[in-house]
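A sample copied in:

***
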Amino acid sequence: MKIILKLLITSFAIILSAYLISGVTVVSIWSALWVALILGLINITIKPLLVILTLPINILTLGLFTFIINAGMILLVSSIVKGFYVEGFLTALIFSFVLSLISYILHKLFGAK
């Protein structure tokens, strides 16, 4: 039940973030659900490996390079999911930051305790 709630909250955060940022398009709720699911799977599998491989630069930037990794993940998801479009890397970077912020707030408000 917690996983479904997290998926729904993340989907809503994706829709809200796409509404706030021009250059990001989410065609339907189903697209947002797929984005949330695939982004979650990528964050579980590929992201830890990338963080380890880029650890020196991540240390030098005090962890800010993680946003670059997140933007890359979002661009990867936009190439996989039909109905989710991101214009470019800078848009993906801004979307990554806004999505992280909105997801954090929504999970604190509505997340399973």
